[in-house]
Structures are given as C-alpha cells and as structure tokens.
C-alpha cells in the first residue's frame, strides 16, 4: 500500500438513526446519519408499519372486501 493516500479509518464512528438510536461503527467518515437500523426495522422488531400514501391501504382493503363479498 502507498503511504498517505488512504483515508483514516475510525473504529468509533457515531451512527445516528432517524428513530433516535445511536451506536458506534467503523468507518472512514466522522459521523453517519441513517434512516433505518436494526432497532426500528420491521424484520428485527416484528412490528409492521404501514405507510399510507394517498389512501392506498384503504383502497386495497375496500377492493379486498368487495372481492370477498362476491366470492360468498
């Protein structure tokens, strides 16, 4: 490896999640801001978050209910 061309690697970089969780990781950046982490991701927490954009969830549930009525 050539000397003085590689960025400094810090093993105690502070990573801050949008949910408020703060933890240390290794990185060449002094600080990292992330949107999702293991403390707020549905896969790890087991909680499903439904983000409703323009009523899509309600429209889906309405169509699903109408289909169920037709099948009966």
How many helices in DSSP terms? 2
Strand coverage percent = 25-35%
Strand order of the largest sheet: 2-1-3
Number of domains: 1
Which overall shape is indicated by the principal axes computed on the Cα atoms?
rod-shaped
The third-level CATH topology is Rhinovirus 14, subunit 4
- CATH class (first level) name: Few Secondary Structures
State the low-pLDDT regions, or none.
none
**Class from secondary-structure proportions:** alpha+beta
- How many DSSP E strands? 3
Distance between termini? 71 Å
Q: Kindly report the average pLDDT value.
A: 84
Tell me the helix content: 25-40%
CATH architecture: Irregular
Which value, in Å, is the CA radius of gyration? 22 Å
What's the story with the biggest beta sheet?
Answer: 3 strands, mixed
Q: What's the order of the H and E elements?
A: EEEHH
Can you describe what's shown?
The chain is an alpha+beta fold and 72 residues long. The chain has one domain: Rhinovirus 14, subunit 4. The protein has helices at residues 42-45, 56-71; strands at 10-17, 22-27, 31-34. Strands 2-1-3 form a 3-stranded mixed sheet, with no helix packed on it. The radius of gyration is 22 Å and the shape is rod-shaped. The mean pLDDT is 84.
SSE layout:
Elements (H helix, E strand, L loop, with lengths): L9 E8 L4 E6 L3 E4 L7 H4 L10 H16 L1
Parallel strand pairs: 1-3
Antiparallel strand pairs: 1-2
